[in-house]
Amino acid sequence: MTDIVKKETISANSNVLKRSANNDVENEYQSPVNVKRPVIVPACKPKLRYTLLKTGLCYDVRMRYHAKIFTSYFEYIDPHPEDPRRIYRIYKILAENGLVNDPTLSGIDEIGDLMLKIPVREATDSEILQVHTKEHLEFLARTPQMTRDQLLKETEKGDSVYFNNDSFLSARLSCGGAIEACKAVVEGRVKNAMAVVRPPGHHAEPEMAGGFCLFSNVAVAAQNMLKSYPESVRKIMILDWDIHHGNGTQKAFYGDDRVLYISVHRHELGKYYPGTIHGNYDRIGDGKGEGFNCNIPWPCGGLGDAEYLWAFEQVIMPMCREFQPDLVIVSSGFDAADGDTIGQCHVSPSCYGHMTHMLKSLANGNLCVVLEGGYSLDSIAKSALAVAKVLIGEPPDELPEVKQPKSEALETIDTVIRTQSKYWKCFKGNHANDGCSFKKKATETIANRNFPLQNAIRQQQINLLMSEYSFVMLPLINMGLQDDTVMCSPNVYDSQAILICVHDTPEIWAQRSRVTGNIDPSTSIIVDTTVDVIKWGLERKYGVIDINIPQSLNEQDNYSAVTTAQEVLVFIWDNYLKFFPSLNKVAFVGIGDAHSGVVHLLGHRDTRNIVKCAISFIDQKPLRPLIPLVDETLADWYYKNSLVFASGENTCWGSDGNDNKKPRKKFGRVLKCDSDGLNNNFEEKFDEATDFILDAFEEWSDSE
Amino acid sequence: MTDIVKKETISANSNVLKRSANNDVENEYQSPVNVKRPVIVPACKPKLRYTLLKTGLCYDVRMRYHAKIFTSYFEYIDPHPEDPRRIYRIYKILAENGLVNDPTLSGIDEIGDLMLKIPVREATDSEILQVHTKEHLEFLARTPQMTRDQLLKETEKGDSVYFNNDSFLSARLSCGGAIEACKAVVEGRVKNAMAVVRPPGHHAEPEMAGGFCLFSNVAVAAQNMLKSYPESVRKIMILDWDIHHGNGTQKAFYGDDRVLYISVHRHELGKYYPGTIHGNYDRIGDGKGEGFNCNIPWPCGGLGDAEYLWAFEQVIMPMCREFQPDLVIVSSGFDAADGDTIGQCHVSPSCYGHMTHMLKSLANGNLCVVLEGGYSLDSIAKSALAVAKVLIGEPPDELPEVKQPKSEALETIDTVIRTQSKYWKCFKGNHANDGCSFKKKATETIANRNFPLQNAIRQQQINLLMSEYSFVMLPLINMGLQDDTVMCSPNVYDSQAILICVHDTPEIWAQRSRVTGNIDPSTSIIVDTTVDVIKWGLERKYGVIDINIPQSLNEQDNYSAVTTAQEVLVFIWDNYLKFFPSLNKVAFVGIGDAHSGVVHLLGHRDTRNIVKCAISFIDQKPLRPLIPLVDETLADWYYKNSLVFASGENTCWGSDGNDNKKPRKKFGRVLKCDSDGLNNNFEEKFDEATDFILDAFEEWSDSE
After folding, report:
1. CA B424 to CA A422: how far, in whole Å?
2. B173-193 burial by CB neighbour count: b if 16+ within 10 A, else e?
3. Could you tell me the strand order of the sheet in which B293-298 lies?
4. How does pLDDT run across B91-122, given as a tens digit for each residue?
């Protein structure tokens, strides 16, 4: 076999030489036919930067000396979360998985073929002073000599920090470890590195400790890399995936365009630790640093792989590729990990692997991962192992089933992109008008040439109702609402049966230009489901009342619209319906949030003589409970005489839509639609809804 | 130093033991104080799948035997692009860079520590018949015995294929190489693999050769992996980044849900090779395979890193993570590479590295890259080297400066996401209503409850003009347009000066819900720039005419709107303006595409006695040339008496916006705005525009 291959090899080569004899395209074959040239021997030394290098590892048992001084028995049972065992557990799992060869787990120097031990040393004063104030350093330098009482007093005074006589040593080692890890990467002694250090650093501001952090390790390391390697390290990207905002790191580089700081963290309007507004999306840097600070502030906990990967692919990676850092440092808290009771998020170990893998593609692979928070010992160990495996060259493990990112996260990411689109080309194709001020602009009347779109849409409805169906306005007195809020058919006063349609502004289907971010009016349509209801009512000779409830401007919960709906319905009942002479049957059709007006009326007035049924199409809008002010049996009555159509995506069905969670009776008879979206729900259930009304009106004899 | 460390190590350990003596949280430290336990020795065999394995490489000189039979001298000078040297050049660059240790470049078996040679064999009949028809196999099996004339005849008959007596051997080897490479990955003999094979495969359909391809190598390999490893290979993702659509591969798995085929390619409405509609975004698979075929069809050439990375992060990676393949095969043509004259795109070698790096994160790293097209020998060599380096474990090189993705690509990706959002959860947060049929739906009147948004917006304008400024309609007779197209101020008949504002439907600023994809009417506003123009005119006691030109439905070039604008302007000139008794000054303000009506009028009628100037705000809309039908001097006159404000992003400034390309005189005096977007242009230039009108009307004496 080998012989045959060899023969063929030769003939193949000669074939090529022959073929290309007259061929001018290629240099390497310009020799004339049959003149033998020596074969060009390629240089064979691998031109590889990293494949032959190990991954660096910083670990030193002395960083475990810093510990909270116990003052009560309960602290033994429920130890402080920033526990000395954190770094030990990470080192242990690396050893258990063979990444580190250290059978005694004592932190030896020779740790095998995969990782290279980077000796940890204390950060020097001058290194620390690159970021921190002299006062802060001097304060910490006094702690080794303090008495137990003094230490406890300082612990009491600080913002979530503790001190013992070893704190200063541990903090200097932690900081020095971060520096040495970065240095080994920058100098090319390792391909990348992981610093398993504590106490953490990212909450330590230049002038004070905080949030379990004494020195701002990553900031000190970054600052010193910029200083020591001005040629090879001009730009650094710090990615902080700790669940808390890295206020200290942000502060250290807020005015610096050499360091791009990106933090993904729980923010919750500033209520989550560190509890300030500095972690909000609109903190984008200052002066020269404007545009070089990017906060991705989650509005809630409970997020996981889907949201973090979304953030990476939509924001972090495009931005970093544009920034082109020379070094990437990860402020790697593992408190967003599944199982961390402080972070309450669900990032899987393999997701940490995937994120690490993505970051490896930056900065020619110059990546240094520095431990920050993370308080479940099991979770941080598993997460750190996943990161370390990817660092040494393993592919990340397959992700557990990826879910759809939560809408809260989607909205956060959208806001961040809009905000940053001012500074980053990669987001230009994604911007919605001009950035952060959009919502503000949209609700301000900055000029009298800006008109709310919903007014125009209502005008469209009015025109149709008036011209096609001769509707007239039904006045609302002293309510401060638009004249066109309630319209009714001309026969309404004398009708026996009235159909009342209470609705939000109709849906608009629109395409947004990727280029300008604006809506293209030529392909946008208003989908007005109410028209079908009204036509159906008129065909059956019912009186028809159309009530439009515009949505609230600038209110998350649509509060004032809901209030308006409630007031209008009660007003119409008290001032009109009660007095209509022939009226004996009323059916409500509520569409969207406006249906809350119907539920409110049915609980606040006894309408049971006349009202026969209430149908609602709520899509993904919240359910509204009937509050039975008249008597207790109202909720039962409502359940029997209502249909509430909710889309499968409505949160009332539980978090994943598959639970057969059943809403309670006070919400009416809630039915799940197979389709999604108001219009689709409506198409699916229109016949069921109208049949229900006919049934309630006892009109089957007429119609069938 | 070592001594100190050791001592500290011990004391640290004992410290921990002491500390955790009373600690119930952790299992490993539950022994009582001072009772020594043996230290737990972790198992130290690395639990690593890939780090210790090499990357596989398929290469065999016999695949160079397949070559075009030369029939004229010119084929020596300009050889067929699918040239036998393609695979040699790739092998050579791997050797030159030390990835392969083969000084003679003859394809030896022992190629060093980084890559493992995978011997190439001929695919068997039964393997090939997994995808291809018996007729196709039998036809190719006859080619070794054919005469030169027969071969030339078959070459003539085929669709861009050629044959010689070695074609069958080379094709079987190429196909067998793909199979063996995949096999080595699946069996874990290598960490991943690269098959440097030819002839390529992805255009070969089950029943016929085509596009330089004889057997559908990747399809045959995939099909056989599914068959041979039913336990470990249940799902395969094939990513085809060749610049051409892989019609053969698509066809092989169009009804198969086990293979997700994703292709990124030039399509150009089906005009680009292979020249059919099968590569369009709406080809999403059939039957069980519905949703498992994804085409990303570029509408043009000239694309590069920005667009490919965008496609990866927005579409490919999310989709693949959701699919969770067991094996990823890349149909790796390098004809999208910078320098390829057939592909005319600009994907850099490092971008190929980045894309490979991303794919490595899937399927536990089970990745096999199989060569397809790519016709610049230099480009394919550099690209393949970048891919190979990432396969063996190098980080991808830094990208050249990443540009903003082109709007054509953004739109393509949007369309693909909308189309696929029906099948993939990951796109749920990104969908615009329900998928592929959106545009169709938007322009159909599927029910009489759908109304074009632009009608509602015009209604809003009419209401304002009538109620605030007492405007009346100016009738257009026999033009088949809406009554409300032209409105005028009551004084228009007697005015000496008239300002005519011709505009598109105003801009809408809107936020789209990430969750439902619908527009939120409560925060959407109509930004009607015309109001400022009209108010300014009325304040100066001019007559004012407002002309609304709705945009064309479902037309890319807005053709019918442009025609309407032209007809309306001519009609108004011929039937009104010419006969107004006192009129001696007219100024036009054109906003958007509608300004083409003004340009048309000024070229088709001699309006110079009365028309003093024409201002246009066109944002990113196309320039319109004046066609001087009346006399040749009109273009000069237009240049002197016009201002055309275009945004900096308008394509009239050349492709990157920085050229000082100057539009020609017939387009009027075109000025670049600093701002972007119609509304911003308008705010920036409003004073300049009105000053220009005052100047033209010689009214400075009055106003200053």
Report:
1. 31
2. bbbbbbbbbbbbbbeeebbbb
3. B115-117, B55-58, B192-195, B367-371, B327-332, B236-240, B259-266, B293-298
4. 999 999 999 999 889 899 999 999 999 999 99
Please check whether the domain covering A461-703 is classified as CATH 3.40.50.
Answer: yes
Q: Report the C-alpha dihedral over residues B671, B673, B674, B675, rounded to 10 degrees.
A: -170
CATH 3.40.50 domain locations along chain A: 461-703
Name the band, by pLDDT with cuts 50, 70 and 90, for residue A427: confident
> CB B42 to CB A103 under 8 A?
yes
**pLDDT value, residue A10:** 37
Q: How far is CA A326 from CA A222, A353, A484, B472, in A?
A: 11, 21, 62, 66
> What pLDDT is stored for residue A637 in this prediction?
94
Is residue B50 less than 8 Å (CB to CB) from chain A? Answer: yes
Least confident of A255-269, A343-357, A546-560, B55-69: A546-560
Show the 3-state SS of B202-232. CCCECCECECCECCCHHHHHHHHHHHHCCCC
* pLDDT > 70? residue B26: no
Residues of chain B contacting residue A447, judged by C-beta atoms under 8 Å apart: 532
Is the distance from CB of A144 to CB of A132 less than 8 angstroms? no
Q: A473 in helix, strand or coil? A: strand
Judge: B394–A434 Cβ closer than 8 Å, yes or no.
Answer: no
Tell whether B37 is within 8 A of chain A (Cβ).
no
Q: What does the pLDDT read at residue A499?
A: 97
CATH 3.40.800.20 residue ranges of chain B are 55-436
Residues of B with catalytic annotation? 203
Do A170 and B15 touch, CB atoms closer than 8 A? Answer: no
Torsion angle in degrees (nearest 10) through CA of A249, A253, A257, A263: 20
Contact residues on chain A for B518, CB-CB shorter than 8 A: 507-510, 677
Between the alpha carbon of residue B142 and those of residues A264, B69, B164, B167, B468, the distances in Å are: 63, 17, 11, 10, 85
* Contact indicator for B252, B128 with CB cutoff of 8 Å: no
Separation between Cα atoms, residue A287 and residue A257, nearest integer Å? 9
**Confidence band (pLDDT; 50, 70, 90) for A415?**
confident
What is the full DSSP assignment across A105-153?
-S--S---SSEEE----PPPHHHHTTTS-HHHHHHHHHGGG--HHHHHH
Alpha helices in B158-192 (DSSP H): 167-186
Length of chain A: 704
Cα dihedral A454, A459, A464, A465, rounded to 10, equals 90
- Check residues A185 and A662 and name the one with the higher pLDDT: A185
Residue of A513 and A544 predicted with greater confidence: A544
Query: In the CATH scheme, what architecture does the domain B479-703 have?
Result: 3-Layer(aba) Sandwich (3.40)
Q: Residues 364..393 of B with a Cβ closer than 8 Å to A: which?
A: 364-365, 377, 389, 392-393
Residues 595-634, chain A, touching B (beta carbon < 8 A): 619-620
For the segment B644-660, the average pLDDT, to the nearest whole number, is 74
Question: What sign results for the dihedral spanned by CA atoms B167, B171, B172, B177?
Answer: positive
Asked if B425 and A411 come within 8 Å (Cβ–Cβ), the reply is: no
Query: Using CB atoms, which residue from A20, A107, A649 is nearest to B9?
Result: A107
Nearest-CA distance from A398 to chain B in Å? Answer: 6
Q: Using CA of residue A631, residue A633, residue A635, residue A638, what is the dihedral sign? A: negative
How many residues in total does chain B contain? Answer: 704
Contact A393 B393 (CB under 8 A): yes
Q: Using the beta-carbon criterion (under 8 Å), do A64 and B508 form an inter-chain contact?
A: no
Residues A242, A333: contact at Cβ < 8 Å? yes
Domain A55-436, CATH class in plain words: alpha beta
Rounded to the nearest integer, the mean pLDDT of chain B is 87
Q: Nearest Cβ partner of B405 from A84, A397, A429?
A: A429
CA distances from A503 to A574, A599, A698, B332 (A): 20, 13, 25, 54
